[in-house]
Design brief:
The complex is a heterodimer of chains A (323) and B (523).
Chain A (H helix, E strand, L loop, with lengths): L1 H29 L2 H5 L6 H10 L6 H13 L13 H36 L4 H15 L2 H15 L12 E3 L2 E3 L4 H34 L2 H8 L4 H39 L4 H10 L3 H29 L2 H4 L3
Antiparallel strand pairs in A: 1-2
Helix pairs in contact in A: 1-12, 5-6, 5-8, 5-10, 6-8, 7-8, 7-10, 8-10, 10-11, 10-12, 11-12
Chain B lengths: L1 H23 L3 E6 L14 H7 L7 E3 L5 E3 L2 E8 L2 E6 L13 H11 L13 E8 L2 E6 L6 H5 L7 H6 L26 E7 L3 E6 L13 E6 L3 H9 L5 E2 L7 H6 L3 E16 L16 H10 L2 H8 L5 E2 L23 H11 L6 E7 L6 H14 L3 E7 L1 H9 L5 E6 L8 H8 L17 H12 L3 H17 L3 E14 L21
Parallel strand pairs in B: 1-10, 1-11, 14-15, 14-16
Antiparallel strand pairs in B: 2-3, 4-5, 5-7, 6-7, 8-9, 9-10, 11-17, 12-16, 12-17, 13-17
Helix pairs in contact in B: 8-10, 13-14, 14-15
Classes of the chains: A mainly alpha (323), B alpha+beta (523).
């Protein structure tokens, strides 16, 4: 077990290093932060001096090692543009993104699972087919189109929900939450819905496939033979056996949602990490971009490692096996 | 049980207060901005949007009035006691938001801070050498040489409270390379018409009125809620649904819809920014081979090929103003005589190319960005196809500003777009010294094509020390005339700008520099 853990950690460190290396390679092509930091009236000498001071003239490998050394100690430097500590800026925005992702995930489970069951047990009916067909639209519409559409309907036409922002927030220690205020709860609906649309489709299709599989098994046939009501069979016995892959997939997708929330965050001006990243890209704010990519990679790596370790705990065959 | 009721009462009370605030919101502006400000520290980043927003909290020694003329602010009067020394008499009885008095020491501390080596805004006060406090309300500013534009520069130098800076260890600007945060990035203490109440980056920055402001307010606002909404579509939606009541960057394509909304009005005009094309003037083209752009006839042909009227009516939807000279009409140094737009004449253009020996055309790199200027991508494509029509082969290269700027600044572009508004100086001198002057010493930073016109250089230098306004402006105009004749830069247009506000504002002045100034707004 220990050997497995060490191997897994070494793996994670290697992935993190590769991510930061690739990120640094990319930064060389996104542009010159100095041209954006100084205004029209700055002289050439001032521009060169600032570039040298920020270490942008250093060879690539020097810049990269300095970054890794500092990052290992949790120091990502301060933003070129906002002059604030990068880690603090990301930590400040993390709760917004996390709440959005969790609410979106909940929506996708609450809506997706029943829909999956319905489409599985009423396979031939017209409404099941319609749901199946509509879900293709859900999966293929780009999320900014969905977002703008939702804003148009619920904010501009109906005037029910706010079009942007997070509403009022309450601070619980360093965590700021919008879920405790009425305006915060109203504000999260549209972005969470738009983020969860893809997820709903995914959950629904997964549940449907699993259900079809399970419904063919012998124990369901026995249950039917014993005269157990169809409702109990479907939602209790069959569904229980489908949930394991759904839970695994949902957990893995949380990392993905955190990373891809940036489109939704931009459309709804949701003050999360994605919005921070998008703006950092526009202004070539290298410390923020590097910090964000590392944090997101860390979230992915941790989630993956956790899932792997859990599996290893459950299934002894995985511990010694060469994967 | 009792505590529960108590909580309920408190909640109801809170709601009642909120409702009351709702009725009092007649004097609130909810500002839907295209972007957030970068920091609360005006000396942190060369960003005029941030500096203008912070102007609501901080003030300079002088300021622009409604007509963008300079008027006294924290300084009551000034005199030039020697060509390099200006004496400012400061206003008495001005208090900072924390209650401390405004004195000459504060001015000295602020000037020292902004002109520090590590200050990104050092360039905003180029001629500053030192300052001496004469008494509590008099200060002498010493310059490196005679310099007529000190007042223009000072409009943008916000004044801090010295004791506040010292107490919070913020006398020096925040040094990004040192990796340490500064106090002024998160806190403010100015003398301006509004006081900071709260700030959540990317979400909301709230200002409330400064009751103790020294000046007679022309506005009747009590509160400004500044909310960035980056996505243009969401911004428009928020305005239509009444969640914000002012938007300072309304997308051109949405203007008809916004004008049609009964509770909104659209404010439109052309910007001060003149968008123009620059030419590579080195010996060789980036695209390879000897550089034909050094031949005036070639540049003339390229100008004759471009039909600005067509671009104005089609690409810019009739909202832009075609330019014949490099500065907008309201910039000192502008001359109407120079502002004649060259009419398109492709036949003549072809003849000129042939005369120069390029009847078969040549290939060159045309570098544009996709977001710096209004509809830039489209007008660049239009210009490229107009050049193809006379036999040239432009290689159009469009990308984001952050990516294209190093190419343009590094001489990796043969023809490129650039816009110049002469901000924050608001004088032709700005474009002369930064762009048209040869690249030497501190001049010609934006001389990306590496040209050199000794007469323009001479006029620029003469203007930089000429204290007589009329003489100085005529030198600047003369330099613009040479630039037009030689087509150093090819002017295109002043781009449109649009704000949209709720219809119940009584007075919402729109400024050609695209800066919202809430201290003139009444509702």
């Amino acid at each position: 077990m220990l050997a497995f853990l060490i191997k897994r950690t070494a793996n994670a460190i290697f992935v993190m290093l590769s991510v930061s290396f690739i990120a640094f390679m990319i930064f060389r092509f996104v542009g010159d932060p100095v041209e954006l930091m100084l205004n029209e009236q700055a002289t050439q000498a001032q521009r060169d001096a600032l570039r040298a001071k920020l270490g942008l003239d250093d060879p690539f490998i020097v810049q990269f090692t300095t970054f890794v050394k500092n990052a290992a100690q949790g120091d990502f430097g301060i933003s070129f543009r906002n002059q604030q500590d990068v880690l603090a800026m990301i930590a400040e925005r993390f709760p917004a993104t996390f709440e959005l992702v969790i609410v979106a995930t909940l929506i996708s489970l609450v809506v997706g699972i029943p829909l999956g069951v319905i489409t599985a047990i009423h396979r031939q009916r017209w409404y099941a087919e319609t749901l199946q067909f509509t879900s293709i639209i859900g999966i293929s519409l780009p999320s900014f189109v969905v977002g703008i559409g939702l804003i148009l309907i619920f904010s501009v036409w109906l005037g029910w929900l706010p079009a942007f922002g997070r509403g009022e927030t309450v601070d619980l220690g360093w965590w700021s939450t919008g879920l405790l205020t009425p305006s915060g709860r109203l504000s999260i609906i549209l972005p969470a819905l738009s983020l969860s649309l893809f997820q709903i489709t995914l959950v629904m299709r997964l549940v449907r496939a699993e259900m079809l599989e399970v419904l063919r098994t012998d124990f369901i046939k026995f249950a039917r033979a014993r005269g157990i009501p169809a409702r109990t069979i479907h939602f209790r016995h069959a569904l229980h056996n489908c949930l394991m892959p759904v839970v695994t997939m949902t957990a893995m997708q949380i990392g993905g949602l955190i990373a891809f929330a940036l489109v939704t965050e931009t459309v709804f001006q949701w003050p999360g990490m994605g919005l921070l990243f998008i703006q950092a890209v526009t202004f070539v704010d290298v410390p923020i971009m590097a910090g964000y990519l590392c944090i997101v990679a860390l979230i992915f790596v941790t989630l993956n490692a956790l899932v792997d370790i859990t599996y290893a705990v459950i299934d002894p065959r995985l511990r010694g096996a060469d994967k | 049980m009792i505590s529960k009721t108590g909580l309920k009462v408190a909640l109801l009370g809170g709601m009642a207060a909120a409702t009351l605030a709702g009725t009092a919101s007649a004097e609130t502006v909810r500002w839907g901005a295209p972007r957030d400000i970068v920091s609360l520290d005006p000396y942190s980043y060369g960003d005029s949007y941030t500096i203008n927003f912070l102007n609501h909290i901080y003030e300079g020694l002088v300021r622009f009035d409604r007509d963008l003329q300079i008027e006294p602010a924290l300084a009551e009067s000034w005199e030039i006691i020697s060509p390099t020394t200006w004496r400012f008499s400061l206003r008495k009885g001005v208090k900072f938001h924390n209650g401390s008095d405004f004195t000459a020491e504060d001015v000295l501390a602020s000037l020292t801070r902004v002109s520090d080596e590590s200050s990104p805004l050092k360039g905003n006060l180029p001629a500053y050498k030192s300052a001496t406090v004469v008494d509590d309300h008099t200060i002498d500013i010493e310059l490196t040489g005679a310099y007529p534009l000190l007042l223009n520069d000072l409009t943008n130098i916000h004044i801090f409270d010295k004791d506040w800076l010292v107490e919070n260890n913020a006398e020096m600007p925040t040094d990004v390379s040192a990796g340490v945060e500064g106090y002024a990035t998160f806190n403010t203490n100015g003398t301006g018409p509004f006081v900071l109440e709260s700030r959540t980056p990317e979400a909301q920055t709230v200002l409330t009125v400064n009751e103790g402001w020294w000046d007679e307010p022309q506005h009747n606002l009590t509160r400004i809620e500044f909310q960035p909404v980056t996505s243009a579509a969401t911004r428009v939606a928020a305005l239509l649904s009444g969640e914000v009541d002012f938007v300072d960057s309304a997308p051109v394509q949405d203007l008809p819809r916004l004008s049609a909304a009964p509770n909104l009005k659209v404010l439109e005009r052309t910007d001060l920014r003149t968008v123009m094309l620059g030419f590579n003037r080195r010996d060789e083209l980036v695209a390879g081979g000897e550089n034909p752009l050094n031949d005036l006839r070639v540049r003339q042909a390229m100008q004759l090929a471009v039909d600005m009227d067509l671009i104005q009516s089609r690409v810019m939807r009739g909202k832009s103003r075609n330019a014949g000279t490099l500065v907008a009409p309201s910039i000192p140094g502008y001359s109407e005589a120079l502002d004649s737009v060259v009419a398109a004449d492709p036949d003549k253009a072809r003849a000129l190319l042939a005369e120069a020996g390029y009847e078969d055309g040549f290939e060159f790199d045309f570098v544009c960005t996709n977001e710096s200027y209004v509809n830039e991508e489209q007008f660049c494509q239009a210009i490229a196809s107009m050049w193809s029509r006379i036999g040239l082969s432009p290689r159009l290269d469009i990308g984001p500003t952050a990516k294209q700027t190093p190419k343009r600044a590094g001489g990796k572009a043969d023809v490129y777009t650039i816009g110049w508004a002469t901000l924050p100086m608001l004088d032709t001198y700005s474009i002369l010294v930064q762009m048209l002057h040869s690249k030497e010493g501190n001049s010609g930073v934006f001389n990306w094509g590496n040209w050199s016109y000794p007469e323009i250089d001479k006029l620029t230098q003469a203007a930089s020390v000429e204290l007589d306004r009329e003489k100085r402006l005529s030198m600047e105009t003369e330099a613009l005339r040479i630039a037009k004749e030689e087509i150093v830069m090819m002017p295109l247009h002043q781009q449109p700008m649009a704000w949209a506000v709720s219809a119940d504002f009584e007075d919402f002045p729109q400024f050609p520099d695209n800066k919202p100034r809430m201290w003139f707004v009444t509702r």
